[in-house]
Amino acid sequence: MDKFERQLGDALRDSGSFDTERGTARREEIGKMYDDKLKTYRYFTWGILAFETVCIVLIVGAFMFTNEIKWLIGLAAVGLAAYQSTILMKLWYWQMDTKLRTIKEVKELQLQIVELSQRLGEEENRAEG
Amino acid sequence: MKSRDLIQNEIRVLRAQGGDSEAFRDLVDAWQEKLWRHAYHLIGDEEAAWDIVQETWIAVVKGIRQLQDPAAFPKWVYRIAGGKSVDWIRKRQSQRRLSDSLVLERETDSESAACADLRSALERLSGDQRAILSLRYTEGLSTLEIAEILEIAEGTVKSRLHNAREKLRKLMERE
User: Fold this and answer.
1) A88 in reach of chain B (CB within 8 A)
2) What is this model's ipTM?
3) N or C: which end of chain B has fewer CB within 10 A?
4) Interface contact A9-B137, CB threshold 8 A
5) Which residues of B16-52 are buried (b: 16+ CB within 10 A; e: fewer)?
């Protein structure tokens, strides 16, 4: 990068006045927005799980009080599907969580490698100097 | 090897995807000014740049869980801000058509204005040119990364950078 390009970078950085206070206020607003989204997501997940549980209970109840073969088969199929979907949801959640945790650990290892190699470089420079 | 900041940013993205509010707030801290500057360079309006940043974060809140690769966050977020800026410019252009005479008057004024220094020369560049220069010289992104953000060929980025620099030099020489 030559002198002109450095000046250019500085001029671009200085152009427009970023209001730090406003930035802090916005940070809180956006953070709250994120929290609300998380809450909605949690309510939605628990809502579906509760709905499926109620469905299963109702189906089991209906299963006990009916004698018609057609209804018995139908209720068993619907009950099984509801049960499977709760399992699939839990599996999906577990898979996503494991994936995120694994990638995060890999990234943390990468960070440690970078930090260690930087420290090594600094020590080598000190030894040479 | 990736730099420390990039990896830390990826970890923040992963934590935010996992539902960590503090990590998301850190992400906002780290990116808010960059996004504001990007929007500001594109549209040249400080107040509107704040609105664009706000809209960008709303899109990020909605879509961060769907982001497959945390390393793609910078590219993704710049693209969102760029898209919102383009929408703003389009909206403004349609409003401008209604008051053509006023615009003509302003343009003549800006044509005759003198370039006092590099900063005022920068103001004479188009939003696209300012944004591309900012991504290169303020954020220190490579031409390939800029090409990915702007969804154009790397060669086009190089030629646009060259043209913007040349225009700036000419504007300053005219001084």
Assistant:
1) no
2) 0.73
3) N
4) yes
5) bbebbeebbbbbbeebbebbbbbbbbbbbbeebbbeb
